[in-house]
Amino acid sequence: xxxxxxxxxxxxxxxxxxxxxxxxxLGLVAWLCGATVRVRAGALEFGGGRAGALASRLPAPCTxxxxxxxxxxxxxxxxxxxxxxxxxxxxxxxxxxxxxxFFPAYLLSSAAQMIRGRDPYLDNRFEREARALAAGAxxxxxx
Length: 143
Ligand SMILES: [Zn+2]
Fold this sequence. Notes:
Blueprint: H1 3-32, E1 36-40, E2 43-47, H2 49-57, E3 66-69, E4 72-75, H3 78-98, H4 102-115, H5 125-134
Helix pairs in contact: 1-3, 3-5
The structure holds zinc ion (ZN).
């Protein structure tokens, strides 16, 4: 790895660090509730335990199987994290591009979709991009 690539990689982690800090706090809670932690593809993955079971039983729209905050991915269990890794890694790249701005950008995209009568999750531009790239197809923003 060249010095430039190492510096760029360090910059991406630093730029996304505020979001990763949120993920680490949530991951700490999950870990205290029995989750285990693994490092995969440059991200920490927290899975399992009582918090994972609770996340899968939350009512819609709060339920989730995996969610990403910077370089931290929280999942209901490690089997789910493995299945969702490609999609969640797209979100990691999005955090590396947007940094702390990812939170308001994501919410604004969901709000824009709701105003248009669309699904705030499925039609969110970041989710569409993640699904498209995870499926190997180019994304088509419609906003
Ligand atoms: Zn997603």
